[in-house]
Amino acid sequence: MSTTSSRGAPAEIRQVGPDDFPAVLRFFEGLSPESRRTFAPQPFDEEHARRIVETSDGAENVRLVAVRGGEVLGYCYFESRGPDLYPTVGLGIIDRAQNQGLGSRLMSALVAEARRLGKPGLVLTVHMDSARALRVYTKNGYRITGECSNGIQWEMTLDLDGEDSAR
Ligand SMILES: CC(C)(COP(=O)(O)OP(=O)(O)OC[C@H]1O[C@@H](n2cnc3c(N)ncnc32)[C@H](O)[C@@H]1OP(=O)(O)O)[C@@H](O)C(=O)NCCC(=O)NCCS
Fold first, then answer.
1. Phi, psi of 128 (to 5 degrees)
2. Which of 53, 54, 57, 82 sees the fewest Cβ atoms within 10 Å?
């Protein structure tokens, strides 16, 4: 799996593996307080970096990174919650690589994986003031399906069920 950003240097998109622990920790360091606010909820610590690399199984928990020169620039995942529930999605790009097309490409690759694995759909939450994230999600087919976190976040859903998939 690889991709080239039209607005940046080439980046490879691939599954997270066990050896990615140090790179995932460095990725956390590349997220500003503002990016952490909108990327939350998740702790940006060693324990969580370990969880990311140890639970990346390419099936129930699909975790993709955008990598350039060994550096993780972006991370996108879905985590399954049971057979009848849509997996939950998250996406984050380090600050100096934002707005260069990487988030869109990571999300597109994640959706392709969900389709390939026969997932019925995907769901996420996004801060209402995060216009860039909203744009990326809408472009990838998500639609607003509710409000959460006391009206500061949208819930967005992508339905995949009924599509021609290998489910
Ligand atoms: C949100 C985020 C994941 C998007 O990834 P990205 O790589 O920066 O975004 P991309 O470059 O792929 O796409 C951005 C799109 O938003 C558009 N955009 C940028 N700023 C915008 C703004 N202020 N208002 C509306 N659209 C905007 C761009 O034009 C582009 O759309 P286009 O492809 O149609 O031209 C990334 O910026 C990020 O990690 N932010 C901090 C953490 C976060 O908010 N994560 C999302 C949690 S829900």
1. -60, -25
2. 82
